[in-house]
Write a structure and sequence with these properties.
This protein has helices at about 45-55, 60-70, 75-80, 80-85, 90-115; strands at about 15-20, 30. The protein has 5 helices and 2 strands.
Amino acid sequence: MRGVAEVKETCSLPMLSVDMENKENGSVGVKNSMENGRPPDPADWAVMDVVNYFRTVGFEEQASAFQEQEIDGKSLLLMTRNDVLTGLQLKLGPALKIYEYHVKPLQTKHLKNNSS
């Protein structure tokens, strides 16, 4: 029987600045700039930008669901609470946090920045 070679992919990604203090509700403050390797507007994010965003903010395990479902920035901004809670097949706790503390604020910020 022939052995299968294991392929390891290394990736060097700039990290986001995350401020965990003063967040009583469990949310994470994220400073978003070009320094983190993503365009500032989530609508311009590729699938891997979305995946890397969720990895960086502490959802390493759940980030792969966004890749499997091919969720890019435009798709992320269109997601409803129900999409996140049921469509990604995530555990309820992380799914709620992802929607409330990340998806919804990104949607709000995007709408606010593009409504003028």
